[in-house]
Design goal:
Elements (H helix, E strand, L loop, with lengths): L1 H20 L2 H7 L2 H24 L11 H7 L3 H11 L4 H8 L3 H15 L4 H10 L5
């Protein structure tokens, strides 16, 4: 980050020296004011686009990989993990029960176990913590 800031600062200093080298006063006398303003605007547009592309560039994320260590250390069973995936999809207990072929009371039990294992008290907290631990995408 410090390297990027130093690079941008050097680019601005170089532009300042360039304007001085071109004898800014001479340009002001020989070119119309709108031409000078346009030239300076063009320079800063190009610099802004370059900086924007450098700063905003992000590498695409790779394929999601489940954190098996965290899954094992928390002791989450396969069925609880299936319920967790359904929770992350925003499904209700009845929908989860229908999809997994279990009763809604069993879903409630699995959800309660997930809350205890993840040390949370709400569905959204469970999903957020699971994403932090890279248990779900």
């Amino acid at each position: 980050m410090k390297r990027s800031i130093a690079g941008y600062a050097l680019a601005l200093v170089a532009l300042a020296f360039l304007l001085e080298w071109l004898e800014y006063r001479f340009l002001m006398r020989s070119l119309p004011t709108s031409g000078v303003i346009g030239l300076v605007a063009l320079i800063f547009i190009v610099l802004g686009i370059w900086v924007g592309l450098r700063v905003a560039r992000r590498d695409p994320p790779g394929p999601f990989e489940i954190n098996d260590r965290a899954l094992a250390s928390l002791g989450i069973s396969d069925r609880e993990y299936a319920v967790l995936e359904q929770l992350a999809a925003g499904q209700s207990n009845k929908e989860i029960a229908r999809d997994l072929g279990i009763s809604p009371n069993t879903v409630k039990t699995h959800v309660a176990h997930l809350y205890a294992k993840l040390s949370v008290s709400k569905r959204t907290e469970a999903v957020n913590k699971s994403r932090e631990l890279k248990l779900i995408p």
